[in-house]
Amino acid sequence: MPGLLGAPGAPAQPVGLPSMGTASGADLSPALERRLGEAIMVQGRRDPTYIDDTEVIQYLTVMGRKLAAHAPGGAPQIEVFGVRDPGINAFAMPGGYIGINSGLVVSSDTESELAGVLAHEIGHVSQRHIARGFTQQNQTGTIMMASMAAALLAGLAGGVDLASGLAAFGQAAAINQQLGFSRDAEREADRAGMEMLSKAGYDPGGMARMFGRLMNVSRLNEGRGAGAYASTHPLSIERMSDMQNRVRAMPDLHRADSDDFWFVRARLRVTQALDGQNLRAAVQQLNNEAQSLSGVRQAAARYGVALAEIQRGNTAEAERALAQAREGYRDSPQIARAEIELASASGDTAQALQRADAAYKRWPDRRILGYLYAQNLQRSGRHQEAMAFLQERLKAWGDEEPRLYQLIAQSAEALQQPVAARRDMARYYLAVGALPAAVSQLQQARNISSDFYEQSQIDVEIREAKDRLAEERKLLERFRS
What we know:
Its cofactor is Zn(2+). By secondary structure, the chain is an all-alpha fold.
């Protein structure tokens, strides 16, 4: 990480964070706030806009945790995920869960601009603005809390409707708007974010440039605003002036964008194209970039074209685009992933497995490549090897990757181990907080088993899951009341 040197000049306002006073005793504790966020995410992961892509989640979460490590007052627990939406938006939810719209990534001209918005959201988390908003908004906050708790309780009972459920991500962004962060809160998040950006090695000017662009696009002025992000985080001339003054007082830091940024950006451009017309527009934009740019940016654009062609079923065109991407940029885990996906789309499981094996050995830190290797072992009927590999990954990655349990369960089922399969599926559901589903899986396992010792173990697991479910309901009932 680059060293930080002092710079001349002084900001127009004090460098420290503005004081908003201490949180009241009625505030949500961090532990309760986290549990509320986890309950929202149980439903949120079922939202059709949730981007269930390990590579995207890993990239965003690594960036978020790098920033959060430098948060004033200590690093908050952060989980960052992507939302399939071309709108330029980001939102923080209770407990440190932060959603980033695909449109925000695609519209960012540099990685520091994306990091700037994420740092601002982490600023809201680290300063506990969401918890304060819930507990200091009097009647409005009480109504919001009760409505959210009612929706989550319906989810625990299996009766949630994602089209109207409060936990859907569009509603989560709306909650931010209803909380109506004060000017002091927004300024506090700006200043905390800039401090994180600088200390994490990003260009603090990225935040000012991105917010300035949002102001221009939305034609904002003091007291007026439009656009997705502006509606939840009102921008103003005052805020922009404060940011610009602070940038001038900070070290002149020009950070090179990571290669990952450009590849994730290209993938999300394709991901957010939900119909043929938008996909054609995305391919046209990517082709334009491929013709006008060079180096990693050109390779990433061609990679994006290949992803679109795979999605269209044009495997020959996808292969041609990937070959062009490799011409000037051969060493890329993203291109290797696309080549695995291309082989799978072509029905060549043997080649997909060979490519996945080589790619994972080359980039063992890329979790998506580990998943692709395990999945292609399964498709090849090599479930014993897949299970052994997945169990090793479980030791290394832990509960951060609950999907491992799901894949282990699939191999156990294929190996005619139905009790083990259901217990592993229960572990998956427990890890993601889907408690009723976990209880159901354990009860099925208990009914299938004929081994007294095993049944006794499962009985303990059922009791623990039911106790946790009862605690969750009690917690939500408390919020509802």
